[in-house]
Amino acid sequence: MNWYQELESPSTVSFDFDCTLTMPIWSWEDQLWRGGMEPNWDSIQRMTKYHEAGHRIVVVTSRNEEAESTHDQESGRISVADFIAKHKLPVDQIYFTSGDHKGPQLAEIGAAIHHDDFQPDIDSAEEHGIQAVKIPHPDDKE
After folding, report:
1. Integer angstrom CA distances of residue 30 from 35, 53, 77
2. Mean pLDDT over all residues of the chain?
3. What single-letter DSSP state applies at residue 69?
4. Residue-wise over 68-79: b if at least 16 C-beta within 10 A, else e?
């Protein structure tokens, strides 16, 4: 597992939600990839390993917290809290950035490492001194 980084314990390890903890699905209506409802087991395995090593696990999502109650199965999306509960994920807290880049929030919460599929959020994390791991996404160029 070359993705695993030894961290001083306890550290805060963060994960994006859509297309990081969930598998991407194509939205024909919007003509873009969206986070679906199926788990990304590779990312969840990473999360579990960090949790078992004693680290604090958080989710930092670009979603808007006020809109979370409108996400349901009919829309093809699931709320972050419902997904975490459904899959019994060891998440201590959820942070919503409402579309803002994640670096400032990650720095504020003291994240040691962040996992994300979206390159601008990877760059933002690194600009704020947070180590970042790029999760593969269908839009990634070879």
Report:
1. 13, 40, 14
2. 87
3. G
4. beebeeeeebbb
Q: Is the pTM of this model over 0.85?
A: yes
User: 32 has which bridge partners?
Assistant: 27
Q: CA angle, 20 as apex, 16 and 26 as ends, to 5°?
A: 120
CA–CA separation, 8 and 113 (whole Å):
11
Question: How many Cα atoms within 13 Å fall on the side-chain side of residue 40?
Answer: 23
- Tell me what the mean pLDDT of segment 18-31 comes to: 83
Neighbours of 44 (CB within 10 A): 17
Domains annotated on the chain, with CATH: 12-134 (3.40.50.1000)
